[in-house]
Amino acid sequence: TVPSAVQLILFGAAGDLAHRKLIPALYDLHREGHLPDEVDVVGVDLQEMDPAAFVEFSCDAADSLGRFFPRDADADNWAAFSERLSYVQGDATEPETYARLGEHLEKVGPKGERPHRVFYLSVAPFLVESIVKNLAEAGLLDDVERDRFVVEKPFGRDAESARQLDRVLLGTADEGQVYRIDHYLGKETVQNLLAFRFANALFEPVWDARYVDHVQITVSETVGVEHRGGYYEGAGAMRDMVQNHLLQLLCLVAMEPPVAFKADEVRNKKVDVLRAVRPVTRERVHEVAVRGQYGEGFLRGERVPGYREEPKVAKRSATETYAALKLEVDNWRWHGVPFYLRTGKRMPRRVSEISVQFRPVPHRAFPSGADEAFQPNRLVLRIQPDEGIVLRFQAKRPGPQMLLQPVAMRFDYDEAFDTPPDAYETLLLDAIRGDATLFMRADQVEAAWQVVDPVLEAWAESPPAEFPNYAAGTWGPAAADRLLARDGRSWSEPL
Ligand code: BG6
């Protein structure tokens, strides 16, 4: 249940994530009636902004990126909500900021009842430790039941630094107060993977190495690095996307059925998958991992610059904007089934999908020539856009001859349901309610780093010779095709 009084404190309130996602999500939650009447949204940032400017900034965010339109149709509702907004300017590394913040929260909060407080750390990673320590020292994390904070990724840069960060966080707060966010887990279609697998009797019996040939997970984006060069240069596709979003998808596809939908039970089953991933040895990195960086190219008919020409990016940058990885899950269910993961910026299309490729039938009884177009069954779980599920199977082509042709059966989210809430709405509401099921536990984060660390280390040691190695607007470097060709397979064209 939602507590009757809540204060949401956004660190980095003047930043990109607050504007694009957090503020629109909060307003939409309010409009849907999910937030209590006693709610305060307090922005904290280094930037000078008077309270009216913060209201204007928030109105702009909600209007352009939310589901309601505060400037126009929704002006009255917005007026009521905007009274709950306030702003505290301050340096997040200065204890004095927290003394002021504490007083401010007392002042704007409800009298009598102690509100629940969610501190959202939408800040550069180097600030996280300092903010949490300062919050604790100011007594703002004292109430283990009511005070919690949300940490954005990247959570460390490798297993060692993630452990180190955890030592600091758990030295000052309780694990139950730490919400490590991976916004992919809040996407409706990602959550639907669990419903699809574990609420239907039909698919689970064929969900293993006996029937599945291999699995492909694609998260392609058309955007480039935009104005995030400063962050991205130190991250790259492996840290920015694979370590978190793609490995989460892998966990959901490959996990065993949970006994109950309880936070720890689901998370235990996911960690089991990561632990079963066969460690990539340094000698094998070049066989199982491919990196790429986009050069200039054309996207939808327009010329777009190469990564090295983007703002705040080094002229000889070795940062990868594309990564592909072949993983194997060493357990009973998945023995010998490769999982191919790929993600990249400046690809021809924005698509996130999981494609489960089944084995061919054991014996083809049809007359010769009938099955020239034969393609094994494929199940595609489409996460975005055009959310849905597609099953490819063979049909007989109408006519006098027995000729087979692959056809598709489709389920479309849009047709069946209303527009789903944004992932950030779901996750913010969970954080408010204190439900951590869709957040990451420390051991999950660490296990995910252990999967990618050997690759990152090998890549750091031998900078790429031929970057950029794919043109913007293409599906990545040729080496990524060879990764599958070596196994006699190819990337499937996203549906
Ligand atoms: C973020 C990454 O976590 O996910 C970005 O930092 C990426 O680089 C984004 O663009 C993609 O999210 P979505 O929801 O648009 O698929």
From TrEMBL:
InterPro entries: G6P_DH, G6P_DH_AS, G6P_DH_C, G6P_DH_NAD-bd, NAD(P)-bd_dom_sf. Keywords: Carbohydrate metabolism, Glucose metabolism, NADP, Oxidoreductase. It catalyses: D-glucose 6-phosphate + NADP(+) = 6-phospho-D-glucono-1,5-lactone + NADPH + H(+). Residues 9-192 form the Glucose-6-phosphate dehydrogenase NAD-binding domain. Substrate binds at H183, K187, E221, D240, K345. It is an enzyme of class 1 (oxidoreductase). Residues 194-491 form the Glucose-6-phosphate dehydrogenase C-terminal domain. The keyword DNA repair does not apply. Its EC number is 1.1.1.49. GO terms for molecular function: glucose-6-phosphate dehydrogenase activity; NADP binding. GO terms for biological process: glucose metabolic process; pentose-phosphate shunt, oxidative branch. Catalyzes the oxidation of glucose 6-phosphate to 6-phosphogluconolactone. HAMAP family: G6PD. This is Glucose-6-phosphate 1-dehydrogenase. The gene is zwf.
